[in-house]
Amino acid sequence: MSLVHKEPCGISKVLVFGAGNFGSCLADHLADSSHDVVVWSRSPEIVQHLNESHRNPEFLQDHVFPDSLKAVGPEFPSTELIRQMDVLLFAIPTEGVRENLKLLTPKLDESNLPLLIFVNKGIEIGTHALTLDIIADTCGPKIAKVATFISGPSFAKEIVRRQPTSVSVASLSDEAAQKASDLFHQPWFRCYTGGDPIGVELAGALKNVYAIAAGVADGLNFENNTRAMLITRGLAEMTRIGTAYGASPLTFLTLAGVGDLFLTCSSPTSRNYTVGHRLGKGEKLDHILDTLGSVAEGVWTTKGLKKIIDDLGVTAPIATAVYEVLYEVDYRQTGGRKSEVIAFAAANQGAGSAVSGETSPEANEKVGIGCLTIRMPRLKMSIFSLAA
Length: 388
Ligand SMILES: NC(=O)c1ccc[n+]([C@@H]2O[C@H](COP(=O)([O-])OP(=O)(O)OC[C@H]3O[C@@H](n4cnc5c(N)ncnc54)[C@H](O)[C@@H]3O)[C@@H](O)[C@H]2O)c1
Ligand SMILES: O=P(O)(O)OC[C@H](O)CO
Fold this sequence. Notes:
Layout: E1 13-17, H1 21-32, E2 36-40, H2 44-52, E3 70-72, H3 79-83, E4 87-90, H4 94-104, E5 115-118, H5 131-139, H6 141-146, E6 148-151, H7 156-159, E7 165-171, H8 174-184, E8 189-193, H9 197-219, H10 224-245, H11 255-265, H12 271-280, H13 285-292, H14 297-312, H15 317-328, H16 331-334, E9 342-344, H17 361-367, E10 369-375, E11 380-386
Parallel strand pairs: 1-2, 1-4, 2-3, 4-5, 5-6, 7-8, 9-11
Antiparallel strand pairs: 6-7, 10-11
Helix pairs in contact: 4-5, 9-10, 9-11, 9-12, 9-14, 9-15, 10-11, 12-13, 14-15
EC number: 1.1.1.8
Catalytic activity: sn-glycerol 3-phosphate + NAD(+) = dihydroxyacetone phosphate + NADH + H(+)
Subcellular location: Glycosome
């Protein structure tokens, strides 16, 4: 396939916050699309290498970045730089968003706001907040209304190799969503508007939890049938949670929903899948996180999600099981050998539909839920399955 480089509709000045895998990747893409791009990193080494050798020493190490891409840091960007920007793009993990928005807010010119884009996929620990709530808390409702969320199946290392990629973009402001879509528009990278911000955000955060589940199942040597079951029932589950939260169920059928769920649950390129796979092989969570070298948002999101599930009273056996695997089994005591519960619940949700989110505990009860327990040499795993 030949991908012809297309000039963007207009040149924008873009400041990318975060020079990890995805921040670097998007900065690369935008600079290569002739935008004026500056990337901010807290790491002096990354700033120096990007400016001098056009390489990132920690992330996407094989990639050579465009000469036009400038890096700044480690200090937080100045008011002067921020006010020159048309676009501020946040590509840092959800846990870092609040502290950075607190630093940013006093530097913004409220009468001339830039486009704010967020690509993180997570739920904040402690507050269980989505990013839209964090923005409203720190920057106020005016800025939250124009904040834009991009999410979808998008491995950074494939985008830098110009693999055709499409994602969803959503904002409370249609104009902001369209601007963000236009910014990225290239034959190899498309943003599709549609979906609501809450749904796009939740889908991006939740798919990481189901990717951990799929990774554990694969790590335990379950095969394709089991993964397909987890993906399908994971979609039903995330749709139910999202609908109860106030999102449109249809958002979960977009690139941000089923698209990203499918990608992340089926590839070892995913850090979340990898965490699950290594857990399935019996490694301890602390060790996995110490050696992963990059963020796996699902590990923290699972905590916030558990609280949301409990508060909403939604049936979410897979997410609940992932929570138990991550936080209720003490691997330090068991050495990963005789865990009390390594439970995966791909629950039968009766006649409920993934689209309508109609499934209910009553529906489950009606058809009955059976429990198949599989004993592995090192791990015990329960899969709830259809009894009928
Ligand atoms: N990697 C991908 O393919 C991909 C794709 C889509 C979305 N995302 C999402 O983008 C976000 C970032 O992911 P990533 O892959 O770039 O992660 P990463 O671990 O590769 O990099 C994260 C970067 O953020 C910086 N950072 C962390 N906490 C910070 C803070 N408090 N303040 C400032 N900087 C901070 C780190 O120093 C690092 O440079 C995550 O939410 C992830 O889910 C990643
Ligand atoms: O590596 P993961 O699991 O964080 O997934 C990266 C992206 O979210 C895939 O779209």
